[in-house]
């Protein structure tokens, strides 16, 4: 073992790894939020609850149906995504012509209802979910021990973020999304069904939250408050990255995870507030966020 | 004897339209035959742009009748109207800043065969080919106008609604756009052109409708334009 700036390498890299893990969740969740905000102009306060639903559904699939982690990775985002489609079609679409605030209030209410329903059914104590057998154990890198599942979470999150970025920046569907974000009326006048695009985008954003929930189930305890705990930090990530900025969400998510991890090591008292201090500074100096194009 | 007159490609009949509480169109009527270039002329605020917005369905508060090849479309959504074969080029051009020139060109979906290929479009607008990877809004005003027209030519739409395509452009660009519209007419496109510049319109159109206070108040065949020039000046306040 060696030291860097007086910090044992095991501790330093351990915290960096923890930061990357948290960053993986921040990036995935803020990516979904950014996509939804970009096209719908809705600040989706239910995002944390949808992440929690992803984790719970993973647990339920295993507990009630014997369906394991790998199938959950596929099924849960689809199921929770469909739930998102219904929410958008039945409720959120009715508020499109109103101010952002109404969407925020509606989704905030939805978040409380969803969390409340799970709290009534399952209580607040966490439910355990084991790491899949194929990802148990870890690698001894000499300067640190790297658990396989955590490495998997980082790699999967990076892959999903990259795939989503490619989808939005390099495909025809992505061009529709970007154009509809700028001028939905004209895009519709070109023959593109924008309301359907909006519904699918909301469903896609929700599916990303649910995917993060599946990945979180073996790491964090599955409980009704897990989304509420995470969502405030994720909102800060989105604000720092720039509301609606896809690349901003991804880069900022991982970077802030690392900064938070390092702060835990260097000045633990500030670790839970460092992201909000950065948010305040960014808002003062660059209100549109680091990667944002508009306020 | 049965009426054998062909059904016009576009017939607007008794069209009323509103922006919120403002009643903007008051029973506006006109028709466009297949392959014609028709202009809507009139002063600022007469209702020309509103007419195009009502036809394509962007303006939803409308009533009356709009039929395309005999098919009523006034209750259709704008995406459904576009898919019936109408291409819309808005006054503000509507170039997307987050898209490259190529992405802007490829954005409107192809709705039927018979649209221009990218090669044909680049032959019409060589400037666009040179700047195909540039961000759409980095183009000059004239190039943006070319892009706005070009992107609806790919789709297979046979009826084009062009809203003030010459507004704010240099004479040399206006000439190029004029040549393009002439070529499109030669290829059989049907065009409704909203213009304030009637000298430009006179070189291209078969007929001119005069719009005043939300309704059509007169119509001139292009051949009779010179004979009616004083009347036209009076309508347009020239």
Average predicted local confidence, pLDDT of chain B:
91
Percent in helix of chain A: over 70%
Quaternary state of this entry equals: heterodimer
How many distinct domains of chain B? 1
The computed structural class of chain A is mainly alpha
Distance between the termini of chain B: 45 Å
Unreliable runs of chain B: none
Strand content of chain B: 25-35%
**Portion in beta strands of chain A:** under 5%
What is the helix tally of chain B?
9
Number of strands of chain B: 10
**General shape of chain A:** globular
User: In which order are the strands of the major sheet of chain B placed?
Assistant: 6-7-8-3-9-10
What do we call the CATH homologous superfamily of chain B?
Answer: P-loop containing nucleotide triphosphate hydrolases
Overall SS class of chain B: alpha/beta
Largest interface: A-B, 18 and 24 residues
Let me know the largest β-sheet of chain B: 6 strands, mixed
Task: Output mean pLDDT of chain A.
Answer: 92
Distance between the termini of chain A: 48 Å
The CATH topology of chain B, please?
A: Rossmann fold
The residue fraction in helices of chain B comes out at: 25-40%
Please, could you describe this protein's structure?
The complex is a heterodimer of chains A (295) and B (238). Chain A is built from eleven helices and four strands; from the N terminus they run ββααααββααααααα. Chain A has 295 residues and is mostly helical. Chain A has a domain at 29-231. In chain A, α2 packs across α8 (194-216). Chain A starts with a strand and ends in a 10-residue tail after the last helix. Chain B has 238 residues and is α/β, with parallel strands linked by helices. Helix content of chain B is 32%, strand content 26%. In chain B, the strands form two sheets. Chain B has a six-stranded mixed sheet, with helices on both faces. A four-stranded antiparallel sheet of chain B has the order 2-1-4-5, with helices on one face. In chain B, a hairpin with a 2-residue loop joins β1 (10-19) and β2 (22-32). Chain B starts with 9 loop residues before the first strand and ends with a helix. The interface between A and B is medium-sized, with 18 and 24 residues.
